[in-house]
Amino acid sequence: MTWSRALKETARTGLTIERTRLEPLVALRGACGVAIVIGLILWLGSPPLAVSSAFGAFASGIATFQRSWRPRPVLALAAAAGLAVSTFFGYLAAAHPLPFVLLLAGWSLLAGMAWAVGPVTGLVATQMVAVMLVTVTLPTSVFGAVEHAALIAFGGLVQAALIVLVPIRPWGAQRDALADAFAAEADFARRLRDDPVAPFDPQPLMNARHAAAMTPRQARRRPRQLRGYRALAERIRPVLASLADPVIGAPAEGPERDRVRDLLDAAGTVLDAVAHAIRWGKPVRLPSEAMTVLEVPAAGPILQGAARRSALRLMALLADVVESADEPLETVEPVRPTPRPPSDQHGPTPQDTQQQASSGQRPSAAKQSASAKQSASGQRAGSGVEAVAVRNALLRPTVPRLVPVALRALRREVRWSSPVLRHAMRLAAVACAGYLLGLVMPLGHGYWAPMASVMVMRPDFEQTYSRGVARFAGTLVGVLLGGAAVALGHPGEYVSAALAVLCVGLLYLLLRTGFTVASACISAYVIFLLGIAGEGWSQTVQDRVGLTLLGGLLAMAAYALFPAWETPKLRDRLADWLVANGRYAIAVFIGHARPLERRPRHVREALLDARAARMGWEQSEARAQAEPVRHRGISRRSAGAAQTALSTMGRVTMLLEAHPPDRDAPPSPEAAEFAAALRAALPDAATAVRERQPLDWSAVHAALDTWRDREGTAALPVRCAELLVDALDELEGALSRGPGGRNRPRRRP
Question: Which part of the chain is the Integral membrane protein YccS N-terminal domain (predicted)?
Answer without folding.
Answer: 81-188
